[in-house]
């Protein structure tokens, strides 16, 4: 019998050959410098030099893919970072031992994209499209991102809200291979070792969840992983952050969802949620391990934590780590941008308007605080005075001063002098708001009577039904336009189709966090910012509002279309970086002269590279 296993000396010879080929290639890329001499400077991926030159190579330059064997291209075809499928050229097929492993046709990336889109459009069920997109991401990374960038308005609802909500609910059934790190109570005391198991060693953005409050769907435990995966896909597609520097993480401390605990296919810990000291110690170990392993400048985005933990984590770590809570800060920045843009339709300044929220959790109070900060910035009135323009309704009714003793700490600043009111409709009639904002996570709560009351009080009522997914929206675009007889300005968290009313077509805006967090993250990374300040969020809001055109206003939109999102993200990144430089929070010096051009140069582009 002939052994097919290579002798040790042959394996060593092949390894030496590989290293010499790589060394030669790297010397070409680095102008003869040793890899060990490469400085940690900004590369095309946004912040850290790409060791193998992949992201610095232009479309017509060649690179050498890191393959496991020089004897077969089989492993290359199964590496999503480098696989091009039928787009491997004849020369590449010869050079990388791909002959016979692919059909003879050589395809272009554009033709591949056309074929995938044709296949996706045949699926009638959104979850099937989601699964097909995830399969593509695991098979061919560059094609996945090119598809998403070129068809962003069509595919954003597939890879993100609302479809990602259903994907999380069924994550245990559709789970195929891990797309991020799972850190559970079993790993307590070993989290640093777990982080080192991740194959990429240079990480710049982490999105982490504990799955307790996934969108408006509640506790989904370990199955919340779909959220970090989806968010980081958007960091790359919309913000141009290299996929290799993005790390999705789910922290599994159990679940209180009995349906999941009883599900034989549930992939997480089958126990009730850990709380108190046990929970705090695990998170403390996690935060310390991240900083130890990845350094001071890794951005940690908290995602879909329950209210009590979300506020506590942000308060605890915002001075010691580079942290950002998208539910509190990202949502607030996006909504504030819509409010600033809407002033061209409503008239006046923010300080001239009265705001009423349904929902007083992390999203509602985060938005309210940023509105108050913007009013203070523009008018110089004290923050406490600015807050008096903003009212919140929670599950027990209008938040008023007589309830202050029983309120959670994050609700207390919004307890104003007023008689108690139980119902939203009564609050609308008493407060007479010009802007109604829903962050309740409860669908159909902006009833016909509520919308009609808003329309009777205002010639152009601004109604924002922000809860996700679509099933949890406080009202639909059709309901808002119909019940207000076409007078409302409407925006929502999830997308709605254009609606025709009395001969006019209304295109509602989508107050989607995806407008802000990708560009915000890029701005932080490219400037080497070490902390997140509220002024940076205000800068992002103002930059986004400036992107709304007269054409958008004529359609009733207070947000720009997503088709221009890469340009929008570059402008937001530049505004955030400019503010960070102004505040003295940056480590990447000197400051570039043109921050917009610099942001564009830092963006990852998913066109295929030529291999040699």
Automatic annotation (TrEMBL):
Coiled coil: none annotated. GO terms for cellular component: chloroplast. GO terms for biological process: malate metabolic process. InterPro entries: Aminoacid_DH-like_N_sf (IPR046346), Malic_enzyme_CS (IPR015884), Malic_N_dom (IPR012301), Malic_N_dom_sf (IPR037062), Malic_NAD-bd (IPR012302), Malic_OxRdtase (IPR001891), NAD(P)-bd_dom_sf (IPR036291). Divalent metal cations. Prefers magnesium or manganese. Keywords: Metal-binding, NAD, NADP, Oxidoreductase. The active site is at 160 (proton donor), 231 (proton acceptor). Residues 137-318 form the Malic enzyme N-terminal domain. A divalent metal cation binds at residues 303-304, 327. (S)-malate binds at residues 213, 468, 512. Its cofactor is Mg(2+); Mn(2+). CDD domains: NAD_bind_1_malic_enz. It catalyses: (S)-malate + NADP(+) = pyruvate + CO2 + NADPH; oxaloacetate + H(+) = pyruvate + CO2. The chloroplastic ME isoform decarboxylates malate shuttled from neighboring mesophyll cells. The CO(2) released is then refixed by ribulose-bisphosphate carboxylase. This pathway eliminates the photorespiratory loss of CO(2) that occurs in most plants. PANTHER family: MALIC ENZYME-RELATED, NADP-DEPENDENT MALIC ENZYME 3. Belongs to the malic enzymes family. This is Malic enzyme.
